[in-house]
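Re: weekly structure request thread

Next one in the queue (224 aa):
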Amino acid sequence: MNQTVLTTIAITGFVVAFFHSAIPTHWLPFVLAARVQRWTHAKTLLITALAGTGHVLMTATLGFLATFFGMALSETIGSWFPRLAGGFLLLFGLYYLVRQLRGKGHVHFGYPHEHLHEGEEHKKDFATRTSDRMAITSLLALLTLSPCEAFIPIYVSGIRYGWSGFALLTGILSAGTVTGMVIFTGLTLTGTKRLQLGMLEKYESGLMGLLLCVVGLLVLVLEK
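Done, posted below.
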């Protein structure tokens, strides 16, 4: 199995996870809740990390299922599997590119995120200060019940590397997601964030689609 492909998959996976965490739904709710609940920065970042971990676990569960069934299929069809996996990645990449062209740039499911684009509107949802337990539970559910669909094809691309590949990709998913969420939340809390991340959300589907197409082509060309 080609080490170049695994390295490319790993780098692509980190890019997907990190930049996906830059989407406002992954840090804005924590900042707004912290302001209303009057949480310290340390407490807010801890809650953010916990929510990010839940996000990773839910995504990894789907990745586990993809790896389990994919490995069984790989044993059945043998050398044909890289061609099917590469083709799947290309199709998924093209799907995201079409989504981008149709104006659906955001890659996510499971939670309505439109109202998070405007901070002032979302503050109204927290107008009345609630209990910490309820606020924290809501934030954890927000991310845990909304897995990162863009990372599932990354798991598929690593099926040929078995459970060690699954473990590596899960570690990369965790590092990219949790680190990104904590960084963007922390920068916003300290007032030092000046990045216009809305543009990233707008073109997220296109970016993910391009990355998946590149990995798919590499699998088709290099994995024999």
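The chain is about 75% helix and 0% strand. Residues 41-77 form the longest helix (37 residues).
Next request, please.
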